[in-house]
Amino acid sequence: MTVSWYTGDTSGQLGTPDGTPETFDRSGATQYTLTLDHTFQGKGCYWAVQATTAPASADGGASQQLLTRRCDIR
Q1: What is the pLDDT of residue 70?
Q2: Where is this region: Disordered (predicted)?
Q3: Cβ neighbourhood burial of 50 (10 Å; 0-12, 13-18, 19+)
Q4: Residue 65 contacts by C-beta under 8 Å, 6 or more apart in sequence?
Q5: What is the CA radius of gyration of the chain?
Q6: How confident is the prediction along the chain (74 residues), in pLDDT tens digits per residue?
């Protein structure tokens, strides 16, 4: 599994990579729980994280984005 972090100014888009992706090797189960820390360095209004696997999951992976920094989005 690879976890990548992003910052950006557009809702629904990952934005610019924020730091180095982290890769974890897992095998033998269908579900895993990981607890990760990341300090965002970018100045975007949105922070996002994306998880991908190889081989790819049936849904293509997952991402989550949140609005932060009290940005004025127009």
Answers
A1: 63
A2: 1-26
A3: middle
A4: 11, 12, 14, 46, 47, 48
A5: 14
A6: 899 999 998 888 999 999 999 999 988 888 888 899 999 998 888 999 998 888 887 877 788 888 886 676 55
Rounded to two decimals, the pTM is: 0.80
Listed by start position, the domains of the chain span 2-67
Q: What is the amino acid identity at position 5? A: W
Widest distance between CA atoms in the chain: 47
